[in-house]
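Customer escalation, tier 2.

The customer says the design service returned an amino acid string that "doesn't look like it belongs to this structure." They asked us to rerun it and document both sides in this ticket. The original structure tokens are below, unchanged.
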């Protein structure tokens, strides 16, 4: 198999590198601040690359699978997000392409493209996570609007969101899936309350969101009443394809190597990088990562040829999560005692000890534990693979 890049792909890679250097000249690092994000987003918009996964008819650049692959690799290596616009850009937009009315597309897509509004995902509820179809948040149609009452949990970034795409119960069919409806809910509506949940990495990302007779106009329903499950399932496969974390893991390997090369080996000689136990485990993780990268490429080319990501995305998510978590463990091993959790907002001491990477990588390790739950837990992915890929 010839995996070398064609002349056109090399030229594309050069353009990507040029854009990165033009936007962040003189080796300036991307720090994830809102100013940096806006600068990067503006640069991508100007090139027509902001909505790089969208179909051409909705403003996407029409990249090949290889171009997507190059983009992911180059942006991740530079520490940049491959797209800006969060859940609106990556998760809701594909749903609007498939199920949204022309009016909904015209109303919501431009704001997503220009990152003018933020979206959150209202699926999970207490008692309805893996068993999502058991959700109970009720939407009752009254005239030309639904009144929504109930509760969502683990809603990432709800405290910053303007809108929520959510699943609601509109009828009590014997088959639970048949009574679910997909709504777009304005988070600034009366009756919405956001309650913060602080996670183990010390950050506030999760929330519990409650609704008390929140009015949602009928025009904000995506698909027909009772069709929400079909809409939601399409969205989840897109969510999971985006969770293979290949570029991130590749970048972590490079940095683990750098960090371990500067640390003593366990037998007091050589560096940790050449310590046989450490080197063998890292090599094994890298081999699995290469195999995952190939599977991801295969999925991308199938998607490019018009297929929906399907159950294969569960495989990518399961394996990708496992590998990225192992990578974060290598960093904790490198950090040794400096990996002890350190949160300035708790200790009140802003100074850090140990190498520069020890604290952020420890936070990444803690945060990374959640990856095998978010977007459907490992066990649920295995069930899907058993049923739909292996046909057991
Ligand atoms: C980082 C992160 C971000 C998230 N963001 C959002 C968000 O923005 N919006 C949103 O709606 N939700 C979000 N979630 C919630 C997430 O979708 C749920 O946590 C997930 O679906 C699991 O549901 P649960 O927490 O209720 O666990 P449960 O479903 O109660 O599962 C508990 C355990 O039982 C196992 N289990 C359950 N059913 C089965 C089965 N049939 N077979 C085998 N094992 C099973 C699970 O694997 C798990 O280990 C997020 C979660 C995380 C961790």
């Amino acid at each position: 198999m010839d995996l070398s890049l064609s002349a056109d792909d090399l030229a594309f890679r050069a353009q990507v590198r040029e854009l990165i250097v033009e936007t962040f000249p003189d080796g300036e690092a991307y720090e994830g601040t809102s100013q940096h994000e806006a600068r990067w987003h503006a640069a991508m918009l100007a090139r027509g690359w902001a909505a790089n996964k969208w179909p051409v008819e909705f403003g996407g650049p029409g990249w090949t699978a290889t171009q997507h692959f190059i983009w992911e690799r180059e942006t991740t290596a530079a520490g940049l997000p491959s797209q800006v616009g969060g859940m609106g850009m990556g998760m809701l937009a594909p749903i609007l392409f498939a199920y949204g009315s022309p009016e909904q597309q015209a109303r919501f897509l431009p704001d997503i493209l220009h990152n003018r509004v933020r979206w959150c995902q209202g699926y999970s509820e207490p008692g309805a996570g893996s068993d999502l179809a058991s959700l109970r948040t009720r939407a009752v149609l009254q005239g030309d609007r639904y009144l929504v009452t109930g509760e969502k949990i683990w809603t990432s970034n709800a405290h910053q969101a303007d809108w929520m795409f959510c699943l609601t119960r509109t009828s009590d069919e014997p088959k639970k899936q048949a009574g679910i409806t997909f709504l777009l809910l304005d988070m600034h509506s009366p009756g919405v309350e956001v309650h913060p949940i602080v996670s183990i990495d010390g950050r506030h990302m999760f929330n519990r969101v409650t609704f008390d007779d929140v009015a949602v106009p009928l025009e904000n329903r995506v698909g027909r009443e009772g069709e929400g499950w079909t809409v939601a399932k399409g969205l989840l496969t897109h969510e999971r394809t985006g969770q293979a974390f290949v570029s991130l893991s590749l970048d972590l390997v490079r940095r683990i190597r750098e960090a371990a090369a500067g640390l003593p080996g366990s037998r007091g000689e050589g560096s940790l990088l050449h310590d046989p136990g450490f080197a063998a485990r890292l090599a094994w993780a890298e081999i699995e990562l290469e195999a995952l990268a190939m599977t991801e490429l295969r999925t991308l080319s199938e998607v490019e040829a018009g297929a929906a990501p399907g159950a294969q995305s569960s495989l990518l998510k399961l394996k990708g999560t496992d590998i990225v978590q192992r990578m974060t463990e290598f960093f904790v091993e490198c950090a040794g005692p400096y990996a002890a959790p350190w949160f300035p907002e708790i200790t009140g001491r802003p100074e850090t000890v140990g190498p520069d990477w020890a604290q952020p990588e420890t936070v990444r390790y803690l945060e990374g534990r959640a990856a095998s739950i978010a977007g459907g837990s490992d066990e649920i992915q295995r069930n899907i693979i058993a049923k739909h890929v292996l046909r057991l």
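Tier 2 assessment: The sequence is consistent with the input. The mean pLDDT is 91. Residues 120-124, 129-130, 154-156, 370, 373-374, 376-377, 379-380, 383 surround flavin-adenine dinucleotide (CB under 6 Å). Sent an explanation to the customer and offered a walkthrough call.
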